[in-house]
Amino acid sequence: MATAPRPRTSTRDPEELGRRLTAWLDRTLPGARISGITVPGSNGMSSETLLFDIEHPDTPIRACALRLAADPAAYTVFPTYDMARQHRVMSLVAEHTDVPVPRVEWLEEDPGPLGAPFFVMARAEGRVPPDVMPYTYEGNWVHAATDAERAELQEQSISLLARLHDQFPAKEAAFLLPESGTGSPLRRHVESQRAYYEWVVRDLARSPLLERAFDRLAELWPADEGEPVLNWGDARIGNVIYQADGFRPVAVLDWEMAAYAPREVDLGWTVYLHRFFQDLTVGFGQPGLPGFLRREDLERRYAELTGHTPRDMEFHTLYAALRHGIVMLRIAYRQAHFGEVEIPADPDGLILHHASLAAMVQGTYW
């Protein structure tokens, strides 16, 4: 099946990164040696990941993963990358919940050693639902699983979200509120997304569809926003490492979008990001996984696990699709920057899920 080329994710040289990392580690843990340096094929377009092993009798962790802030020369997806914030969130989640997060170890905020701030954490082994090609496509372990196995994966995954929201002391997450903005946590969260959109389109074509979606959000605004909790932020199964031979999570990854917001912000993201892949798969002529991660099933099970019945989900799934649309637009402009695509006359065409987003705006999607 023909697909678009994978966008460039970095301008960095992995070998040079390895040499600089070795020099940094020698100062941090004198006498330590690094081996097995690899860059995972699924490296993202936000933070980058480097995998390696440490050989030293006193090292606190041996199998390591390094999360490095995005390369400033690579037309970054987000305007800022706060690695200390991610390090703090993961440390607090490990302290206050039983949600499996990798043990975080060293934090380096000085960009000198590797060209950007980074932190090192323990590497978890297992398997991850793929994004390219998506797990909804034929030919990967999620699609090949039985209905009962996918039901277990779904149950384990929604349980992660429920436990995070219930176990983490909400006030401990208040530091994640955007520094700018006013009003409730949800108001400030949406204002921060509006600011992100303005950053994406500065000196470039604006998106009429995204702006209509913001207007529709205002019309659907919840009468009762609900109490804020710690939100994982990028709450989807593609950010979970599962057992190599099973369906239980062993590590929850990618906390850069963590937030202090109502529970439904996370839940809406979980629902919509699966629908994004499912819709994409159906558009390419495959059935996908229509019985997996269905909105009604996730809402029902979340309510059973937490005692909190999700509400205003039309608002929150639209918000998730809008937020994803802003990211998609930035990635498309980034591809144009590197000469990988041309910008069409209608910038909405750059948003891969523009049809489903438009249907949500019109109230005809669900």
TrEMBL record:
Official protein name in the record: Phosphotransferase family protein
Q: Which UniProt keywords apply?
A: Transferase
In which organism is this protein found?
Streptomyces venezuelae
Q: Where are the annotated coiled coils located?
A: none
Segments forming domain Aminoglycoside phosphotransferase: 82-281
Q: Does the keyword RNA-binding apply?
A: no
Domain of life here?
Bacteria
Q: Does the keyword Transferase apply?
A: yes
**Pfam assignment, any one:** APH
Query: Record's InterPro entries?
Result: ACAD10_11_N, AGP_Transferase, Aminoglycoside_PTrfase, Kinase-like_dom_sf
UniProt xrefs under SUPFAM superfamilies: Protein kinase-like (PK-like)
GO-annotated molecular function: transferase activity
